Amino acid sequence: MIKQLILILLLGFLPFKAMAGVTVVQALSFGSWISKNNNAQYDITINTNGTYSFDSSGFIEIAAPQEGIFDIDGLPVSTAIASVVVTQTIPLSASGENFQMVSLQEAHPASTTAGGVAQITVGGTARTSGSTISYLDNTYNGQLEIQINF
């Protein structure tokens, strides 16, 4: 059995569509940065445990990133979770250059609760284009898909 959930999040919360109930405990955010350079691909990485790293050749930190934490309900009760797959469906975009989300990672419980809830934690890497075109001062939003396999 596969349940797919569509979440629109990242760097500014937007409304979301989902096939199950989703409560955003903490929105996934890559933080706030000054882009110093786009002459190569530079990364900002947030791990599922909240630790993060960034390439200081490409960025100056303003506000730290945070992992995303989502309670997903309406799932089968007390059911083992075989796997969770997180994919980017829309890049982090605003006007101008986009950021690609790569190396997406997740942490999930072994099974849903007796109430049919699973808490999924999401992290990953936001990567610049490396095109030499400057990033504009904007909030960049993207979309992820979380697929829970039972």
Topology record:
Layout: E1 2-9, E2 21-26, E3 32-35, E4 43-46, E5 52-54, E6 59-63, E7 68-73, E8 83-93, E9 100-107, E10 118-127, E11 141-149
Antiparallel strand pairs: 1-11, 2-7, 3-6, 4-5, 4-10, 7-10, 8-11, 9-10
Low-confidence stretches: 1-18
Give me the strand/helix succession: EEEEEEEEEEE
Calculate Rg over CA atoms: 16 Å
The helix-and-strand class reads mainly beta
Inertia-based shape = elongated
Look at the structure and give the mean pLDDT: 88
Distance between the termini: 5 Å
**Please, how many domains?**
1
Count of runs of 4 or more consecutive helical residues:
0
Tell how many strands the DSSP assignment holds. 11
In percent, how helical is the residue content? under 10%
Biggest pleated sheet? 6 strands, antiparallel
Strand coverage percent:
over 45%
